[in-house]
Design a protein that fits this description.
The protein has about 60 residues and is mainly α. Helix content is about 70%, strand content about 0%. The protein has helices at about 10-25, 30-50.
Length: about 60
């Protein structure tokens, strides 16, 4: 049998799929750092709420 030439459309499709994945992929370090920052902000908000209204000047 004769050698088949690689289909250029198939190569383009594979490259498009790879680029599509890259555009949607979020690095793990970014997720971890974002989660820690969100937890810190929410913790601060809940601590302020838990103190309730407080007026140090009588």
């Amino acid at each position: 049998m004769a050698e088949r030439k690689p289909d250029p459309r198939r190569a383009e499709h594979k490259e498009a799929g790879r680029l599509s994945w890259k555009s949607r992929h979020i690095p793990t370090g970014t997720l971890v750092l974002g989660g820690l920052m969100l937890a810190a902000v929410l913790s601060a908000i809940f601590m302020v709420i838990s103190q309730g209204p407080h007026n140090p000047i009588p």
